[in-house]
Specification:
Mean pLDDT: 86
Strand order of the largest sheet: 3-12-15-14-13-16
Distance between the termini: 116 Å
Largest sheet: 6 strands, antiparallel, barrel
InterPro entries: Beta-barrel_RND_2, MdtA-like_BSH, MdtA-like_C, MdtA-like_HH, RND_pump_MFP
Number of helices: 5
Number of strands: 24
Strand content: 35-45%
Helix content: 25-40%
Order of helices and strands: HEEEEEEEHHEEEEEHEEEHEEEEEEEEE
Shape: elongated
Organism: Pseudoalteromonas viridis
Radius of gyration: 44 Å
Pfam families: Beta-barrel_RND_2, BSH_RND, HH_MFP_RND, RND-MFP_C
Membrane topology: Lipid-anchor
Structural class: alpha+beta
Subcellular location: Cell inner membrane
Amino acid sequence: MNKISYTLSAVALALVLSGCSQPSAQEGQQQPPPLTIDVAQVKMAPVQSWHTFTTRLQAPERVVLKPRVSGQVEQMTFKEGERIEKGQTLFRLDPRPFEVQVETLNAQLVSADAALMQAKSEARRAKQLVAEKAMSTELAEQRAATLRQAQANRDAIAAQLKKARLDLEFSQVEAPISGVISRAIVTKGNYVSAGETTLATIVSDQQIYAYFDVDERTWSDKFAGVDATDAVTVQLQRINGGASVPGVVDFIDNEINPNTGTLGVRAVFDAQQHGLKPGAFARISLGSADAATMPLVPERAIGTDLKNRFVLTVDANNTLQYRLVELGERYGAFRAIKSGLEAGDKVAANGPARVGPGMPITPNMVTLNLDDTRLVIAQRDTQLSAAN
C-alpha cells in the first residue's frame, strides 16, 4: 500500500514539474526582436570656431546738409530718397542778393584800380622830382604811402569780391558725397541760416561698416596675432535671419579701452550687393582659428551622465556601447567632438532617450546632411569685393 502511494506521489510531482517547465520554454520562444533605432556614421568635416558680437551698421560717410550762406530756398532739385551723385545740385537759394553784391564789388574794384594807377603814377613822378631836387623827401614819402594804401584798398576789395562770388556759388547747395538722400527737412520758400539750418541728410551706400568690441581676454587668447592687413573674413547675420553676408576686418583700434576692457574692431561689407542699411541691427561672427577636421554628430545624440558627456556607439554585434566624449563647438543641429570618436564610428542618432549601454539593437542607418549647416566662416586668404 505504501509503495503504491509513493508511486502516485512521484507521478504527481513529475506532472507539476512538466507543467512549470512548459511555460518557460514558450516564453523563450516568444522573446521580442531587438529594438530598431536610427544609427548614423560619424561625419568628418572641417570646422572653425568663431565668436559672435552684436552691433548696428553705420555708413562710412554721413553728411548733415546745411547751407553755407543764408537766404530763401527757391528750388529743391532732387527726389527724396533717391541716390544722388557728388556735386549734384540739391537746393537753390534766391541768387539775386548775391549777384547784386558781386556787381557792387566789381564796380568798387574798378574804382580801386583807377586809384591805384594814379597813386603809382604820382609815386613814380615823386621819385623823379626828388632826384632833380624839385620835391622834398617828405612829400615823396607821403606819395609812396598813398600808393601802398591804394594797393591795400584794391586788395581788400578784390578779397571781398572773391568772397561774394563764393557766396553766389554757395547759393546752389551741392552734394558733398555720393549716396542716398533723406527727405527734405526744409522746402521751397523757407529762409535758411548759414551753418545752422538742416536741409537733409546723405549717407553713402557703396559700403557699410560694423563696429564691435572684443573683450581683452578673448582677443588675447584667440586673435592676438591678427592684424587689419590680414583681411580676416567675418560673417554678418541680419535680425531676420536669411543668408549670411561676407565681409572683412579692415580696422583694429590701436589700444584697449581701459574703461571697458575691450578692443574696437571694424568690419566692412558690400552694402549695395546685399541691401544693407545704416542703423540696422546685426550679429558679426569672427573666426578665431583656421579650419580643422573634426567628427560631427547630431546634438541630440549626446547624453549627460553627471558631469560627463557621452554617446552610444554601435559595435560589430549591433550592441550599444557607452563612449565618453569631449565636446567642441555647436553648428546648428550638430556638435563637433574634440575627442572620443573617430572616423567610421557609428552612434545612436537620437541619443540615450529609449536605449542604454549593452542593449542589442537593429540599426536603421541614416545619413547626416550638413549641406545647410555653416561649419567654416571662410579661409583668411579669401578675397572679397568688400575688401576693395
